[in-house]
Design goal:
The complex is a heterodimer of chains A (115) and B (110). Chain A has 115 residues and is an all-beta fold. Chain A is built from no helices and eleven strands. In chain A, strands 2, 4, 5, 6, 9, 10 and 11 form a seven-stranded mixed sheet that branches. By secondary structure, chain B is mainly β. In chain B, the strands form two sheets. In chain B, strands 2, 4, 5, 9, 10 and 11 form a six-stranded mixed sheet that branches. In chain B, strand 4 and strand 5 form a beta hairpin. Chain B is globular and about 40 Å long. Classes of the chains: A mainly beta (115), B mainly beta (110). At the A-B interface, strand 5, strand 9 and strand 10 of A face strand 5 of B.
Chain lengths: 115, 110
């Protein structure tokens, strides 16, 4: 089956620890994205990548880092510098490039709780 | 940057009734996409509108793009409990990014 996987579904960490969230896709999509969603809120873009070995900051990149060493993988690290890391994190991908349709396909998400 | 605003933020609907949610922008949009997120789930793409005045239907859902391409609407007919969730509009921003609205949270009263 083609799709996007995120792991783990739930993640608990102590304050001050870095944590890396996994995102893998087998849709052969060029573009990948990370969003943060707080309870009852919309989606805010953290980082995005349009091609391997390249990524750009989104609207709320502070306290986060990413890498894009492989087309199918786009891991997100939540660092200790992120002041309010507890949230629902969603990874998405799209065909990207110059394709007319930019519909995004989302993974199931990871709920991160930091105490 | 480009922003899209959605109203209402919450919509309580009696089962069987119709309702409409709106997405507005102060700037001309190149396209508009709609997503649905069920409670506890992830957003799922519903549809994309590109042309001025475009109207598309999916069963009980009717999507419309305004003539000036600055607003869009989603109308649901005969609401069912399966319609519960949050509906987001989104529009293409610079590069391959999407700008999402804040969403309309729909609750259905049986």
């Amino acid at each position: 089956d083609g799709g996007i996987t995120q792991s783990p579904k739930y993640l608990f960490r102590k304050e001050g620890q870095n944590v890396t969230l996994s995102c893998e896709q087998n849709l052969n999509h060029d573009a990948m994205y990370w969003y943060r969603q707080d309870p009852g809120q919309g989606l805010r873009l953290i980082y995005y990548s349009q091609i391997v070995n390249d990524f750009q900051k989104g609207d709320i990149a502070e306290g986060y880092s990413v890498s894009r060493e492989k087309k199918e993988s786009f891991p997100l690290t939540v660092t200790s510098a992120q002041k309010n890391p507890t949230a629902f994190y969603l990874c998405a991908s799209s065909i990207g490039g110059s394709h007319h349709s930019y519909e995004q396909y989302f993974g199931p998400g990871t709920r991160l709780t930091v105490t | 940057g480009q922003q899209v605003m959605q109203i209402p933020q919450y919509q309580h609907v009696q089962e069987g009734e119709d309702f409409t949610t709106y997405c507005n922008s102060s700037t001309t949009l190149s396209n508009i996409q709609w997503y649905k997120q069920r409670p506890g789930g992830h957003p799922v793409f519903l549809i994309q509108l590109v042309k001025s005045g475009e109207v598309k239907k999916q069963k009980r859902l009717t999507f419309q793009f305004g003539e000036a391409k600055k607003n869009s609407s989603l109308h649901i007919t005969a609401t069912q409990t399966t319609d519960v969730g949050t509906y987001f509009c989104a529009s293409k921003a610079a590069g391959n990014k999407l700008t999402f609205g804040g969403g309309t949270r729909v609750l259905v009263k049986p």
